[in-house]
Amino acid sequence: GAASAPAEPPARGLYLDEGGHAWVDGQPLTPPLSELEFRLLRALYRQSPEIVPHDALIEAVWPSSAWMSDQSSPHDSDEQNLRKLIGRLRERLEPGRSGRAWRFVKNVRGRGYWLDPG
User: Fold this and answer.
1) Which one in 25, 44, 45, 70 has a CA-CA gap of 20 to 30 Å to 58?
2) Would you list the DSSP string of 17-65?
3) Domain coverage including residue 90
């Protein structure tokens, strides 16, 4: 059925399995993503192509940070950490591409990020 994952990742685009592995254009990412990078990518991947708000990504990557803050909005430091992590993830998915339009992880100013797995 539609729920079963393909036996092998597609030759084009981004593919993620539940075991913490990611492929880009059929090639496994080596070394594998860090746990935080994978959590971030998985949160974007599951919602794709919907925009995922910053606070939802922070909650997905650092679940404990939400418990520690009394406000419903994320701390500035959380936002900064998220931006740094997004930068690292982009660099892992698309080495050497920085400064040009990113292929996979897209930013929507003031709203969040979304993933284009194509």
Assistant:
1) 25
2) -TTS-EEETTEE-SSPPPHHHHHHHHHHHHHTTSPEEHHHHHHHH-HHH
3) 33-115
Enter the tokens of residue 84.
């740094």
Residue 78 lies in a domain: yes
Whether the Cβ atoms of residue 113 and residue 86 lie closer than 8 Å to each other: yes
**pLDDT per residue over 70-83, tens digit each?**
555 556 789 999 99
d(CA 55, CA 105): 16
In a domain, 73, yes or no: yes
CA 64 to chain centre: 18
User: Does the structure show a pLDDT above 50 at 1?
Assistant: no
Residue 10 in 3-state DSSP? coil
The model carries a pTM of 0.83
Tally of domains in the chain: 1
